[in-house]
Amino acid sequence: MKKFSMRFIMLMVIVSIVASGCQSSNSGGGSGTEDGIVTINFWAATNPSQQAFWTDMADKYMKENDEVKIEVSPMPESPSSEAGIQSAIAAGNAPTISENISRGFAAQLAASSAIVPLSEFEGYEDLIKSREMTETVSTWKFSDDNQYVLPIYSNAMLFGWRIDILNELGFDAPPETYSEVLEVGKKMKEQDPEKFLWARADLVKPTWWARWFDFFMVYNAASEGNKFVEGSEFTAGDKAGIETLEFFKNLNENELLLTRDATDPFETGQAIMRDIGPWTFPYWADKFPEMKMGENFELSMPPVPDDVDPANSKTFADSKGLSIYASASKEQQQAAFDFITWVYSDAENDMKWFEETNLPPARDDLSTNDTFKAYFDKNPQLVIYAENIPNAVPPIDNEKTVEVQELIGKEALIPVLNGEKEPKAAWNDMKEAINGELK
């Protein structure tokens, strides 16, 4: 993850001018319509496997549709992909379509009319149904009831547990509730005071995106998927929020958190719990081939408060998707939409994506569709990610995502962990600060 700034007020003014002034032009990153051929520029993420996938899809599509030319290129990433896109929009060099768009960044682009609502294209509903993503995409709807991003992948963030160590402590499964987690932690400390439950240095850092992988995982489970912010309104539940902070406080007071940097603490057994995305497994295959599910680790959804049914646990969705840019001509926009409709009309294309990127396609039927069965048989650790795609909540859809998530750390999580505030006071301070930011 890389930082990007969302405080480019002047840039957003320029963006609005570009977006409104170029609607009828054939910009689209310098592409247009010539001799009856519509040329669209597709910006892929800088990950080589994603570029390879989209290049292959474009080549196959163009063989069937000779009136369209698709130019696939990696998006600029200096200092981040988001900043690269912002700069391109301001300079009038935006692509026709790009991937790698998070919901929070899309909210910023939509607020400046830099991207177009996909839900307004004819055939949008058919696309959602044919890809079997009705439930998944429902959590992506924006506050104006439009859909500006088509989710490509969704990583339902899970917790990994050292099941071998849990077994040694007398537990046969990962804990599911706060009290069960604390019970495991206390017993672990009794046997080995040098071990920790969760090693995460980012817990005490104000880094905005770090909150996705600690606070929001726990909060989403406690609130059963509350969206926290909807549009420009702070809608988080007080009870769930305070319980979340109390959970972090209890972990810290029982010396179960390691908040200094450590090298591979979960893999070495220094910590027995960690937040895990599917990208972890290729790393393990290379560096820690001994890590085997069912032998020394298991995966679970985030724990919940004692009065919440673990079956209702939700989590954070590390997810990104496709957006079409307003500066492209109507012909280019339609050609881009037709292309992605073609890609997602065949589950085999999602299977190819899954194999090449290890990023779970954003489909409701990922764990049940026979197209993916053989792959899951070879990679059983990915099944639980697929099963929980509908239970994963994407980032908030607000153009001030960075500011909001920085306030979660500065006003609430970090002061609680440092012993400077009690959970209720911290939550109220954070709530007041976020409401002020959203006005």
From TrEMBL:
The protein's name in its UniProt record: Sugar ABC transporter substrate-binding protein
Pfam family, one: SBP_bac_8
Top-rank lineage group of the source organism: Bacteria
The UniProt record lists the keyword Hydrolase: no
Keyword Signal set for record: yes
Listed PANTHER family: ARABINOSE-BINDING PROTEIN-RELATED, CARBOHYDRATE ABC TRANSPORTER SUBSTRATE-BINDING PROTEIN
Keyword set, alphabetical order: Signal
Signal peptide feature range: 1-21
